[in-house]
Inverse folding.
């Protein structure tokens, strides 16, 4: 029986197992900072963070101040790194919630100094450097960074970080170049008397494929905690990390009907039955995050067997081939993403079909899809 129209069953134990797998790979001396932005890639930021903190995570990373505040509201007292920039009106919240900002520019360092002065206490921050991603982060010369840090004595440079543009690509040299720029900067800062406690550059791909030069003493896994690793290109040294998905996405059957040969199914008659068929209508659609691009080119799992998606993905409904499932009835549960016995559909498969990446499949699962923790 389906308890809801459309829901996700999330295993925080699997997330913790994946976290421990990352820690085993990176080893002692490397702090593993789980990335729980975007509602923990739809796994639920609060529940996921609670489980990870209970399992020993001392740091969590989010994108923005609002996400950090949500964790504080839930009583989570681990260190929280805010990675993707702070708006001017958000700085008070950074200090008030004891969030640790990633500063993206030398001007940000000045802002942090003012904030620390006003608040009457030291403000620890991480500084992001742009080594080639060309997105957030400073491109300032080491001398200017040293000067800016020196002019902000009430703020403390606790960490230095960068982000790789092509971490899973072992054919090109971009990661090697980015990391050597980063290492050169670290050395110049050290020569200027500045040695941040944390250095970090690696997200899931750099961990999973053993790009050890990027691990430094802190890593920032996101996707891998949720059980996925992006495919690599070129030849990675070795695949070190093995993880399993933690989220199963299900929907209720709303109606089962028999249609004759020649019947069309869904918008624009995208599917036409070549033989008599049984069609099941499911309570999920693109408003739930099921990719619209998967019309006619996906499959779900019904009673342990694959069933093809028929026709277009509608806003709130999917139609699937239930011809092989004579006992299927309204109220039964069907798996959109997950495994039943040997049958398995994962976010990587849906992403390939939709011409996108597993990140967007997970993050795209809509807020109205209930979360059930198992
Ligand atoms: C999202 C993000 C991560 C995590 O990346 P995954 O590929 O999901 O492991 C790490 N660092 C930064 C800066 C990010 O924005």
């Amino acid at each position: 029986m389906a308890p809801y129209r459309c829901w996700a069953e999330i295993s925080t134990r699997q997330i913790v197992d994946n976290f421990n797998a990352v820690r085993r790979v990176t080893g002692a001396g490397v702090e593993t900072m789980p990335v729980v932005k975007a509602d923990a890639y739809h796994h639920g930021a609060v529940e996921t963070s609670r489980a990870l903190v209970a399992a020993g995570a001392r740091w969590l990373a989010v994108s923005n101040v609002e996400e950090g505040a949500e964790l504080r509201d839930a009583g989570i007292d681990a260190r929280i790194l805010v990675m993707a920039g702070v708006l001017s009106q958000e700085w008070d919240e950074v200090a008030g919630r004891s969030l640790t900002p990633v500063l993206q520019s030398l001007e940000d360092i000045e802002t942090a100094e003012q904030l620390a002065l006003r608040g009457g206490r030291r403000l620890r921050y991480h500084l992001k450097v742009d080594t080639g991603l060309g997105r957030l982060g400073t491109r300032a010369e080491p001398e200017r960074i040293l000067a800016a840090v020196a002019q902000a004595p009430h703020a403390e440079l606790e960490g230095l970080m960068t982000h790789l543009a092509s971490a899973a690509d072992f054919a090109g040299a971009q990661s090697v170049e980015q990391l050597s720029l980063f290492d050169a900067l670290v050395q110049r800062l050290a020569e200027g008397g500045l040695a941040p406690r944390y250095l970090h550059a690696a997200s899931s791909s750099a961990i999973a494929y053993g790009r050890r030069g990027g691990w430094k003493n802190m890593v920032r896994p996101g996707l891998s905690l949720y059980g996925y690793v992006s495919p690599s290109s070129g030849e990675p040294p070795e695949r070190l990390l093995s993880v399993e998905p933690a989220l199963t996405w299900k929907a209720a059957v709303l109606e089962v009907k028999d249609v004759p040969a020649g019947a069309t199914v869904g918008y624009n008659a995208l599917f036409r039955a070549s033989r008599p068929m049984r069609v099941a209508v499911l309570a999920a659609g693109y408003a739930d995050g099921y990719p619209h691009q998967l019309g006619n080119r996906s499959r779900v799992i019904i009673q342990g067997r694959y069933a093809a998606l028929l026709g277009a993905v509608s806003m709130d409904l999917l139609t699937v081939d239930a011809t092989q499932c004579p006992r299927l009835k309204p109220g039964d549960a069907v798996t959109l993403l997950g495994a039943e016995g040997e049958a398995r559909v994962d976010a990587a498969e849906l992403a390939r079909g939709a011409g996108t990446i597993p990140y967007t499949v997970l993050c795209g699962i809509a807020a109205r899809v209930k979360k059930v923790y198992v």
Notes: The pocket of pyridoxal-5'-phosphate is lined by residues 35, 37, 83, 163, 203-204, 220-224 (CB under 6 Å).
